Amino acid sequence: MSETRRKRWTKPEALSLQETWQKSGQNQIDFCKEVGIPMSTFSTWRRKLRDSGELQTNPQLKPKPKFVELPRPRTISSQAQSIEIITPRGFRLTLPANFAATDLRSVLSVIEPC
Predict the structure, then answer these.
(1) Contacts of residue 108, Cβ cutoff 8 Å, sequence gap at least 6
(2) Which of the residues 34, 49, 87, 95 could staple to 55 if both were Cys, CB 3.0 to 4.6 A apart?
């Protein structure tokens, strides 16, 4: 019975592969398949090298922020009788202008669960 041993990477080898991947323009999965290395090994070395500062990440490859900038809210006139809110799922709420924010949070958590 033959036993296959996994190759242990040295830091210079891992760094060279990471830099080659960055220059290749491929996504990580395709690159790993092409060179025949497990994605988990590639990702582990990527994290280690990035955390140690030895790997310069390409700014074009950084993940996009996971937030959406909202426009500045308009001020509500003190004379307003009601406020209308339309939720992302299409619910339309018409509330008295003095409706408490805590109550609004409770209502929204029911109709627009995360």
Answers:
(1) 87
(2) 49
Q: Which of 23, 30, 28 is nearest to 56 (CA)?
A: 23
Asked whether residue 47 is assigned to any structural domain, the reply reads: yes
Residues β-bridged to residue 96? 82
Contacts of 69 (CB under 8 A, 6+ apart): none
For 65-94, the DSSP string reads PS--PPPPPPPPPTT--EEEEE-TT--EEE
Cα distances (Å, whole numbers) of residue 108 to 5, 10, 25, 66, 71: 56, 53, 43, 21, 20
Based on the fold, state whether residues 57 and 95 are members of the same structural domain.
no
What average pLDDT is seen over the chain?
77
Task: State how far the Cα of 112 lies from the Cα of 114, in Å rounded to an integer.
Answer: 6
For the segment 31-59, what is each residue's pLDDT rounded down to a tens digit?
999 988 888 888 888 888 888 877 766 55
Q: Which domain holds residue 48?
A: 11-61
88 and 56 housed in the same domain? no
